[in-house]
Amino acid sequence: MQFKTQTEAGENTGLLIIPVLSSNSEEIIKSKLGGFSVNSALFSGKKDSSYHLEIDGRLILLIGLGEKPDISSIEKSFRRVLSKNKDLVEKSVAIDFSDDFSAELVESALVGLQLGAYSIGFFKQKKADQKDLEDLEVNVISTTPDLPKMLVRASKIAAAKIEGFKLVDLPPNVITPEYLADWATKQGAAHGFDVTVFDQEKAKAEGLDAFLAVARGSAKAPKFIIMEYRSPDAKSHLGLVGKGVTFDTGGLNIKTQGMVYMKSDMGGAAAVLAATQLIASLKLPINLTAIVPAVENSVDKDAYLPSEVIGSHAGLSIEVIDTDAEGRLILADGLSYLVKNYQVDQLIDLATLTGSSVGTFGYECGALFSNSDAISDALRAAGMQSGEKVWPLPMWESYRSEMDSEIADIKNYHGKPIAGAITAAKFLEAFIHEHPSWAHLDIAGVAFGDSEFCKMKSGTAFGVQLLLKFIENQL
User: Which uninterrupted H or E stretch holds 195?
Assistant: First the structure.
């Protein structure tokens, strides 16, 4: 899309979009439509409402946002514009914001508009009349200071989120560990961060034994991806790790249901990859080291076995109780490698890790675990501000004994239908080398799911906006 600033709505003949707050809907409508009014029974600015009309041959779309809209609801409302109203759009649209809209809300609207052009139909044959919105001209009318700068920023945020969508939505025969490594390399060249990829031989030399054990059953070679973004103005160093299981059969403890959705088991990796792209493209004044251990958990004669004892980068031996508890194994090596090789001030991992977190929070928020009240509070606040909510669960030491093994230093699963998300977090904690500021985000219920924008479950890019807000709140 091509964003432009515009002084008033009359300069363009394309679709005119007017966002309306219910608190002063009549005033906004009369002001923007030159005294023209709409009966409140038809449209009053109520949240999630819209109204179409035509004045002097020009199509107008009124979008109701409610009384006090937040970032998430505005983004969703504007995503609907192109997702559900493509027939109203030709070569250009104009958006006329009233002075009630803060810079943050305008930015969210522009991000949402761009997300509305995203479609999951990657492999469908294109129809002759199918609209290409890539060159759509979007004229923005707003009194927001530094509007041109904001337009650029909104485009970068939307681009990163769309990449987050794609990485989860593309099928597992496309999204392989090698694809993720190539993606990172290309984005690094485009946005200015360094990328190192360990192949199987190098990973073995580095002692990434838990990571390699998960990969043994797949014909697709694992890739251990390290991304390094550095800013000359940085005052802190953030470490990220994202679970990159490109497809999860469950291994020899094969899944008995829902396997069709397991292309989403790299939702944590998608968040970390897209967030790295965004942080670098915005040139945020921090240092970032992000690791994505990328594997496929499959089944063949070489697949790792339940009851095996495997090694790990941290030097701890691990008894494998369940091969479907594989995400924590690759995260363990990712966390350990990051802490041992980089001096990060804060450490965060994101993973679609447990069904237990979904059982606790449903599809409303991610589960947050941390050994630091400061980072936990900061992430929770950023989640509420961004609409990508996370909420804390306890990390009491009494849960640690659930992961005790008779034969090894630790086991990867406690085998009980209770406290699954918590015990998984306690497992990961054993591999952070007592880093004092660590948080684990279990995003199994929010990285992939049903939405009004797709008939099938699809990626949400959960974590991208959260991490951006988390970082910027500390600058």
Answer: strand 194-198
Q: Can you spell out the DSSP letters for 318-377? A: EE-S-TT--HHHHHHHHHHHHHHHS--SEEEEEE---HHHHHHHTTS-EEEEES-HHHHH
How far apart CA 32 and CA 373 sit, in angstroms, is: 47
Handedness of CA 74, 275, 156, 169 (dihedral sign): negative
Question: How many Cβ atoms sit within 10 Å of the Cβ of residue 128?
Answer: 4
Please report which residue ranges of 229-296 form alpha helices under DSSP H.
267-281
Gyration radius of the chain's alpha carbons? 24
303-317 pLDDT tens trace: 999 999 999 999 999
Q: How far is Cα 179 from Cα 269, in angstroms, rounded to an integer?
A: 12
Q: Residue 44 has which token pair?
A: 């009053």
Q: Which domains does the chain have, with CATH numbers?
A: 2-142 (3.40.220.10), 159-473 (3.40.630.10)
List, by residue number, the catalytic residues: 255, 328
d(CA 329, CA 341): 19
What is the distance between the alpha carbons of residues 382 and 14, in angstroms, rounded to a whole number?
Answer: 37
Q: Which of 12-21, 34-43, 126-135, 317-326 has the lowest mean pLDDT?
A: 126-135
Can you read off the two tokens belonging to residue 431?
């591999």
Give the three-class secondary structure for 105: helix
